[in-house]
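Rotation project, supervised by the postdoc (A.L.). Task for the rotation student: set up a whole-complex structure prediction and record inputs and outputs verbatim in this book. Inputs entered:
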Amino acid sequence: GDSWGIFTFLCAALCNLPALPALNCSEELGAGQSIQQTYDLTRYLEHQLRTLAGTYLNYLGPPFNEPDFNPPRLARAERVPSATVDLDLWRGLTDNARLAANYRAYSRLLCYLRVLDGQVGTAELRHRLAHFCASLQGLVLSIGGVMSSLGYPLPAGPAGPPAPPGAPAAPNDFLKKMDDFWLLKELQTWLWRSAKDFNRLKKKVPPAVVTLRLEARGF
Amino acid sequence: VSPAADPAVISPQDPTLLIGSSLVATCTVSPDFPLKAEDLYWTLNGRRLPAASYTALGPSTLSVALARLNGSRQQSGDNLVCHSRDGGILAGSCLYVGLPPEKPVNITCWSKNMKDLTCKWAPGTEGETFLHTNYTLKYKRRWYGQDNTCQEYHTAGTYSCHIPKDLALFTPYEIWVEASNRLGVAVSDVVMLDILDVVTTDPPSDVHVSRVGDLEDQLSVRWSSPPALKDFLFQAKYQIQYRVEDSSEWKVVDDVGNQTSCRLAGLRPGTVYFVQVRCNPFSIYGSKKAGIWSDWSNPTAASTPRSERVAGGCDPKGGEQNTTLRRELKQFFGWVKKHAYGCSNLGIKLYDQWRVWLQKSHKTRNQV
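Outputs recorded:
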């Protein structure tokens, strides 16, 4: 079921690549394709998250799985990077800053998710989480690929240990459930935002621009 | 975490309770918050608890009494929450209400080619404990002290574990399963076995089913012995099961012995049969004991020929015309084979397959 979904989706994404002559200007060519793929990956993850979040919130039980549930964001929840940002600030981001924010956010979110994976109760949930983490890892690598192809340095990622320094574990089970809830919420918000980020980047590095340049050089 | 960060504190925090027990929980608002006991209310799993069960124990402490608790709604614990009047969440506590585990039962194990051991078991009769229950399979060589713990779980279903290596032959093992949850531990009875007594192997490979000349009531089955047979000293005995395509009733042929071929007789003409073979490693190292039957091989299909001389009214209208047709077709195909190249696939066999298919689709149409 799920694996067929990924397979067909990735095939469809790859098949949308424009056919271009293989020439020396491969760097910007690569970036255009990578940006499209990264965009497609965020949409796919968004879809996957809907099922994962549904299952996980049901596991946490009501009121966590109620549609209007809106608990307070306690100070401790700030350690999860927030996607919400001032609109003008967002518009004014350079390509580098935009990509770096995405890269940093997903790297950290991946760490937190992996910790979750180790603690969660049912086999079904563990399976879904592992699957999602693998896809999320793919997204981080994809963003890294775009940054490299545009010549930007990768931001220093979070270190190996799962809990980044300065983030204590929740002191009780209920607060832990709240943390999990906010983690999933933030993940959702980031995926919505990333789609917009990559759409914006797509417009700045379209394959058509590269073709024009080639013609100008008399190829 | 500094107390100022949490608006209120609940006691007890995350308790574990037996089904049917009662609980009194208290919610104490932090001094930094301007809330009184009368500004608070409780919910359990999203449902508001009746004010009649509340008692103010102090200016900023409200208690709630819960009686005869049912098993937890979800294994992550019931959510008992203290709210302020406007619905805001002040604090929460997860209640784990359930039963201690029952002794796991029905431990069965098998070894694939004496290389490993897989065991499965069933949870105790009650089953539902409402709490997350961990199962650990343990084993040790009898008379040799050290307990070992199985690591690879869920290989053959939820309640199973796989021991991949370091198993000794010719020595009895003691095997048991421990079940534990927040309310206690239960240990199964110990099962004693020798790896050599529970050996199974792969199903036979390359199963071929073919016709026996023109005989319309027989099929010949051939297969290869499983590869592991060569590696160690056991004999193999086989069993065949077959059924007619549109039936779910299998006929078993038991006395196949250690041959790798067998002829099925007494079959219906012009019918498609499904055949499967399985293997039992038997008399391991001369022990004269049977092992455990392997899985059945993937089903192989074949059809018995249909006779040219059909007596009786079983055929649809125009039966006689069909047999003449068949004879002529046979002659035509013989001619084609001699004179045309690349048509070797044509033949009376193909015509038979087509007749079988016709019979099937005719039946399906009638059933609809």
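Student's summary: The domain at 28-158+170-202 of chain A is CATH 1.20.1250.10 (Growth Hormone; Chain: A;).
Supervisor addendum: The interface with chain B takes residues 58-64, 66, 71-72, 74-76, 121-123, 168, 171-175, 177-178 of chain A (CB under 8 Å).
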